[in-house]
Design a protein that fits this description.
255 residues; Rossmann fold; Methyltransferase type 11 domain-containing protein; membrane; transmembrane; SAM-dependent_MTases_sf; two-stranded antiparallel ribbon; transmembrane helix; binds 2-acetamido-2-deoxy-beta-D-glucopyranose
């Protein structure tokens, strides 16, 4: 007897998807576990940024983040009901930044923690053709896989980085250090934050001292401006520019 082909396709596809996810997750844990766990260091900004209790390990933290990111009901809503509205709001933010000369069509732009990539779609819609998103779970073609604690990009890859997930960082120092590492000198980082209210239950940290605790983490950047915004529960936009000094590299005289 012959097996009907069509009904098999869907389970097979799902199995493939599941297996590739397992592989990705395994590789991801292998590649990031050690450096991330060993990166925890007491920080002078500890009093200004509170890490929420309850994460027994980095794996615990990743499980919680994935629980939301992989929730099929939420992914469906993000892709349908939320899509246009979010792209519109992001477009307004980015148009303002472009008008101020902080972003251009030629910018290599990265959206950190972009989920399905509405912010990436907004950037591309404005003409920033090279815009790319990154999240724990990829969402092709706009969003590639990556953890903001250990970005999968070489040093000085981007001119512009946007993120509205700083509050999800279990290691805020790592988040900041990775943005600075992957930005080119003179590159711009734009962060949307919950300063005047709390993040949601998926937040891993809270800013207790306004934006000061955050700004202090960016050792190689200067503040361009801070302004109030209304961005999906986040109320403050901080724009930083990476200074021209290279980090952790001795200055060498050439020629
Ligand atoms: C997420 O957590 C809820 C309970 O909080 C649980 O019912 C659900 O199975 C979890 N989903 C995933 C994808 O881990
Ligand atoms: C990209 O170029 C187009 C056409 O010149 C212009 O209208 C648009 O504002 C530019 N976008 C950005 C982000 O600079
Ligand atoms: C910033 O500098 C402080 C003090 O030198 C250091 O403890 C901290 O690790 C640095 N942060 C980053 C993100 O490099």
């Amino acid at each position: 007897m012959s097996v009907p082909k069509k009904p098999l396709l869907k389970p097979f596809f799902l199995l493939l998807l599941f297996l590739s996810f397992l592989l990705f997750f395994h590789l991801y844990l292998q590649s990031t576990k050690t450096p991330i766990s060993s990166a925890i260091a007491p920080s002078s900004t500890a009093a200004l940024i509170r890490i929420r209790p309850g994460f027994r390990s980095y794996d615990d933290y990743i499980k919680l983040q994935l629980n939301k990111t992989l929730n099929p009901r939420l992914r469906h809503l993000w892709a349908t009901r939320d899509w246009d509205r979010k792209v519109r709001v992001f477009s307004r933010f980015f148009a303002d930044l472009a008008a101020e000369g902080l972003l251009s069509n030629a910018s290599a732009a990265l959206c950190v923690g972009a989920r399905l990539g509405q912010e990436v779609a907004a950037l591309r819609g404005l003409g920033v053709g090279g815009a790319l998103g990154m999240d724990l779970v990829p969402a092709p073609p706009l969003v590639v896989a990556g953890d903001f604690h250990a970005q999968p990009f070489p040093d000085e890859s981007f001119d512009f980085e946007f993120s509205n997930v700083f509050d999800h960082a279990l290691y805020p120092e790592r988040f900041a250090a990775e943005v600075e590492r992957t930005l080119r000198p003179g590159g711009v980082a734009v962060l949307h934050l919950a300063v005047h209210r709390r993040g949601d239950k998926y937040s891993a940290n809270d800013l207790l001292g306004g934006v000061d605790g955050l700004v202090a983490l960016f050792n190689h950047s200067e503040v361009v401006r801070v302004r109030k915004v209304d961005g999906f529960g986040l109320d403050t936009e901080v724009v930083l520019r990476k200074t021209n000094t290279k980090r952790n590299k001795p200055t060498t005289k050439s020629k």
